[in-house]
Write a structure and sequence with these properties.
Order of helices and strands: HHHHHHHHHH
Structural class: mainly alpha
Number of strands: 0
Number of helices: 10
Radius of gyration: 17 Å
Shape: elongated
């Protein structure tokens, strides 16, 4: 139901199911995901909140709402949700990555790097975490560590769009180093995801 290009139809079907009182927790979660993929994070956040109200012990609800809040540049709120998810599931690499992205969005790079390291301890071959770590190192002025993280991410990343983003960051890093400049955080990105797939 949530294939690319079918999100508006999914929203219609899920809204009808919710209005009939059918499969409420899952319907809210799926509709939230559809809204997020459509680039409507405020509606996604509301649906994830409704899911959490019905399934407060499921860490995935807090992770999903945190992702939508990061996408909506609500990083402080996202931090709280990822932290709650980690209380429920302390070794969640997803929650650690999301919380790292929220810290990076607030330009707290040391905290972001701490979360990325913890996420890699759980899942060492996650290209998104490695790329996010590279970006945090880059913005913190730690160029050698940034390049190393980007190179590792490129070795294991399969998605061509994600690889393109990492290559752009690597080029930005090298250009800034050659010019003797510090790469700057794009204010529109804030170090956090600008598409619903977390980093990209």
């Amino acid at each position: 139901m949530l294939e690319v290009g079918r999100y508006p139809r999914a929203v219609t079907l899920l809204t009808a199911a919710i209005s009939r009182g059918e499969h409420l927790p899952q319907a809210y979660k799926l509709r939230g995901l559809a809204y997020e993929r459509m680039g409507v994070p405020a509606k996604a956040i509301k649906d994830f909140s409704d899911y959490i109200a019905r399934k407060p012990a499921d860490p995935q609800g807090y992770i999903l709402r945190g992702d939508a809040q990061n996408f909506n540049l609500e990083h402080e709120a996202a931090l709280k949700d990822y932290t709650r998810a980690l209380e429920l599931s302390p070794r969640s690499a997803e929650a650690l990555l999301g919380r790292g992205l929220a810290h990076a969005g607030l330009e707290r790079y040391d905290e972001a790097l701490r979360d990325y390291r913890a996420a890699l301890a759980v899942n060492p071959n996650n290209a998104e975490t490695l790329a996010s770590m590279g970006r945090a190192y880059m913005l913190a002025g730690r160029k050698a560590e940034a390049e190393q993280s980007f190179q590792k991410a490129l070795q294991i990343e399969a998605n061509s769009a994600s690889k393109k983003q990492v290559r752009e960051w690597l080029e930005e890093l090298r250009t800034a180093a050659t010019a003797g400049e510090q790469p700057s955080a794009d204010p529109a990105r804030g170090g956090a995801p600008q598409q619903p797939s977390r980093l990209w």
